[in-house]
Structure formats: C-alpha cells, structure tokens
Amino acid sequence: MLALSTSFVSIMVFVYVSAAQSVAPIYGQCGGLTWNGPTTCAVGSTCVKENDYFSNCFPLSTAYTPANAAAQAAGKLYFGSATDASEFTSSDYYYSYYLKQLGQLTPENSMNWNATEPEQGVFTFAGGDAVVGYAQSNSQLVRGYNCVWYNQLPNWLANGVFTVAELTEIVQTHCGTLVGHYEGQVQVVSDLFVHSWDVINEPFNDDGTWRSDVFYNTLGTSFVSIALEAASAADPNAKLYINDYNIEFAGPKATAMMELIQTLKASGVPIHGVGLQCHFVLGQVPDDLQTIMEQFVALGVEVAITELDIRMTLPATNELLIQQKADYQSVISACNAVPDCVGVTVWDYTDKYSWIPSAFPGQGEACPWDSSYVQKPAYDGIIAGFQS
Ligand code: G3I
C-alpha cells in the first residue's frame, strides 16, 4: 500500500513538473540553440528571438505611457481605479506601487451605507478616510461612492419600516453627514476644487422601471432629489452624479435615466453628471456608447466611465486578450470623442482584486493588469484610445 502510494506520488510529481516545464513564464526563456526547456510562452506573452542562443517570452503589451498621463494629455481629468484600504495596506507592495501611478480612486465598498452608518446615527469613516488619505498623499482625485444604493444597506435600514418624514430625515442625515465629512478635503486640479459623488447608485431595473427598495417604496421618486439636495448643501462644490449599468446603449434603462435627468434639471435639483458603469462582456461593447454619452451631455450634464471592466470566459488565450484590447480601445475612444466625458475608472486595475470571478464563475481576466501586475494588451488599447 505504501509502495503504491509512493509511486502514485512520483507520477503526480512527474506530471506536475512536465506541465510546469511545458510553458515558459512571461520573461522566461523559450528558445535557443542549446535550450531544451519549454518553447511555448505563458498566455499574455509571445516568444521573441534575441539571438541564436536566447529567445524569451515578452508580454504582448508594449505601451509605456502612463495611463493617467495619456488621459490628461487627451484633456480628461483622470484615469483611475476602484480600491479599498484592505488592498493597498496589504503586504503586497506591488499593488500600491501601480495604484499610486493612477490619477483617481473610488472606494469600492468602504463608503457604502453599511460601512458608514451601521447603526442609525452612528457614523464610521475609517475605510473611506483611508482611501481619501491615500489619494491625498499621492495627489489623486477621489470620486465619492456612494450615498444611496439599494445594496450594502445595514439591517436597521433595509428591513426598517419608516414614515415618509422619518426616511426623508434618514436620507438627509446620511448624505449630508457623509458628503460633509469629505467636503473640501479632496482634490485640487489646476486650482479648481474638483471632486464628484455618486449620490444615487443603480436606481433603475433593466426595463427602466424604478427598483423596489426601502427608498423608492417609502418615498417614491423623491428620494433622488432629497439625496441630491442634501449632498449639495453639504458640499456645494461637489459634482453630483447618478450612476448605473446597462445605460450604455439605447434601451428602456437609458431612456429612463435621460427622463430622470430632464425632470431633475427642469425642477432645479442639483445634478451634474451621469456615471456609466461599463461592466462589459468581451466582444459586446455597445456600438452606440459614444452616441449615448452625447445624448446625456446634451441634457446639460457631464459623463464619466465609472466602473469599467471587460470580462471573458476562462481560460484566457492570446486571441481573447487581443479582442479585449480592441474592446478597451473602443470604450476609451468613445469617451475621448466626447469632451464632457471627464474621466475613466476601472473596477480595480488588476485581476487580483476583481469582483468578476466570484460573481460570474468561469469568467474573469476583466482588468487591464493581470493578477501578477503584468500589463495586458488591454492596457495598450486604453493608451491607444486616449491617443485616438
Ligand atoms: O464586508 C464583508 C465581510 O465582513 C465578510 O466577512 C465578507 C464575507 O463574504 O463579506 C464582506 O462583504 C463583501 C463586500 O463586497 C466587501 O468586501 C460582500 O460579501 C461582497 O458581496 C461585496 O461585493 C461587492 C459587490 O459590489 C456587492 O456589494 C464587490 O466587492 C464590489 O466590487 C461590487 O461593486 C459593484 C458596485 O458597487 C456597483 N456596480 C456594480 C459593481 C459590481 O457588482
């Protein structure tokens, strides 16, 4: 029995070593006259001959322009990423090394209602403060995120029963306190104080009807103006946004958002921007993304790409990564063609912390840097998009 187990282990080790040797890692050797190691390169790289004795695996990505510099050269305010303190304070030196080079940060979860007001009237800002402090020490913009969203609500709120007056005050207190806490702390761009808040996140269903949650069910559509007014009073200089997904193409949800913006504008409610999340699927970037952004801008608001990622069915191949490059380039080019598209945020810059694999099993590789911080062809697509 012992002998059987030992030989089984030996076979497994042999198989493992053979498999490991069959593919050279990125930057590893993949050829040469005396080379008898692997000649196939890891996905994301290709074998390039240096001389007769040495070939190695170079990343497919060859762009060196910093993405934020490319965005600013194109007249945008920033190229940034979602993040949270657990990521940049980890022992992973490289995460922070690359994060610092971006121009803008969005706190991925740490300013959500369950994190900032877990008990009614008890505010905790530690996670958000960490992101804002990190951004300030690296001269980065922050997009505040978010005041009112159906998700990540504390139980006292999600399962509470309130009168109109009670919930109105709850929304006013939350938005006013949250936005007020960061008022004036954030961001100098060319002597102009600029920062934005996603005051309302994901108010609509995909068919354009209002999402059923404690806010809509209690206050009707008025929760939107209540939140926006409170945010504006707390920080009159902030750009106030409504943010959603599946509004990046013509359809009932985009129409509903446009009608909401028109109504708010006509009523004098402070609204300055629409965030298009842009969680896309490989090969399915909407053709009318630029047109849709222009239609929002025509209503008198700016737009931003707020949560960009482009997922694929795994495993990735070089062909899929090249398609992803084209897709990223399409998105960035669309923003580039619209002067009032002010910036682009990716929903984490690295696959290491992407939300995709846990939400869509079998899919991933959605970000422009892989999980080892190697730039993907998508990165070159981003740079090309800003230079288009
Ligand atoms: O904080 C708890 C922690 O205490 C607990 O131990 C752990 C166990 O699962 O869960 C932690 O909460 C998680 C939270 O992220 C913070 O890490 C939730 O389970 C998890 O579901 C949550 O996922 C977030 C998701 O929104 C749902 O809220 C993702 O990180 C975040 O990237 C994702 O982002 C959303 C945007 O806010 C809105 N647009 C779509 C986008 C993608 O879904």
Describe the structure.
With 388 residues, the protein is α/β, with parallel strands linked by helices. It contains 15 helices and 17 strands. It has helices at 2-22, 67-73, 85-88, 93-99, 113-116, 126-137, 155-158, 164-182, 214-219, 222-234, 252-266, 289-298, 318-336, 356-359, 377-386; strands spanning 23-24, 29-31, 40-41, 45-51, 54-59, 78-83, 104-107, 141-149, 188-189, 192-193, 196-201, 239-244, 273-276, 279-281, 302-313, 341-346, 363-364. The strands form four sheets. An eight-stranded parallel beta barrel has the order 6-7-8-11-12-13-15-16, surrounded by six helices. The protein is elongated. Mean pLDDT is 92; it is low at 1-20 and 188-193. The structure holds ligand G3I. Ligand G3I is lined by residues 108-109, 151-152, 277, 307, 355. It is found in: Secreted. It comes from Gymnopus androsaceus JB14. Residues 71-385 form the GH10 domain.
The count of helical stretches stands at 15
* CATH architecture label of the largest domain: Alpha-Beta Barrel
Write down the Rg: 24 Å
SS elements, strand count? 17
Distance between the termini: 66 Å
Q: Beta-strand level of the residues, as a percent range?
A: 15-25%
Topology:
Elements: H1 2-22, E1 23-24, E2 29-31, E3 40-41, E4 45-51, E5 54-59, H2 67-73, E6 78-83, H3 85-88, H4 93-99, E7 104-107, H5 113-116, H6 126-137, E8 141-149, H7 155-158, H8 164-182, E9 188-189, E10 192-193, E11 196-201, H9 214-219, H10 222-234, E12 239-244, H11 252-266, E13 273-276, E14 279-281, H12 289-298, E15 302-313, H13 318-336, E16 341-346, H14 356-359, E17 363-364, H15 377-386
Parallel strand pairs: 1-3, 6-7, 6-16, 7-8, 8-11, 11-12, 12-13, 13-15, 14-15, 15-16
Antiparallel strand pairs: 2-5, 4-5, 9-10, 15-17
Bound molecules: ligand G3I.
